[in-house]
User: Fold Cysteine synthase from Iodobacter ciconiae.
Amino acid sequence: MFKYLEDFVGHTPLVRLKRMPGNSSNIVLVKLEGNNPAGSVKDRPALSMIRHAALRGDIKIGDTLIEATSGNTGIALAMAAAVMGYRMVLIMPKSASIERVQSMKAYGAEVILEESMESARDLAQIMVEKGQGIVLDQFANSDNPLAHFESTGPEIWQDSQGLITHFVSSMGTTGTIMGTGRYLKQQNPAVQVIGVQPCDGAQIPGIRKWPVEYVPGICDFSKLDRMMEVNQALAEETTRRLAREEGIFAGISSGGALAAALQLSQEVENAVIVSIVCDRGDRYLSTGVFPA
Assistant:
């Protein structure tokens, strides 16, 4: 049977690293979310949020959808909106890479640039209050973590043959870690769920440490076993190493999460550690993180 584009979201590879873990007794696995149609882990919640909103009757074909995003969710939503027949308006910080902005526009989305992610979220709410569209709100929408509970978690559990001991994920909207972590804990409560945030002052695309008033509504820190912080230089160097030593061309948030996973690997033995590679590196070429 022939399939539609959205049918290919998910079922991404879980790959064992060969060189970066060194001579450790641990197995370090990375899930290549850049293999999704729009190139990131955010394809999963984007599709989930639109599908469930339509099923509830909250939106209908032709409606204008508005979302504040730092990049990957916006690209995924722009793709999903194009496939499913919605107009998409995306609001993002000016610091976003040009590749991200151009990708959203390529899918037909309107892009508005704001000073920060916080001001982008504020503007989205103002536009809704003015009747200019409907916000799916990835930060408070339970269909975001639900996508990972229904797909990312089961895939990791199956592909790791139930041997996973630690799950490491960078934290932005927190949908990935909340949904995946909940599923893995249901299968084995001993699985450790570790969230990764940036050190103070670090600017790592896709990883956030939110001010208290902007912490996503879907986030529940009590569900995490541990929080780890990563600095910008280490995240960027680990991203470059991932390409040079493992042949995996990924984004900077992926390097940040893997840096934490490798640090964790130095602390434990005989573990199976899974880290999320959120997206591909080609949408960061203009940032200077990769050698010219």
Remarks:
- The chain has a mean pLDDT of 95.
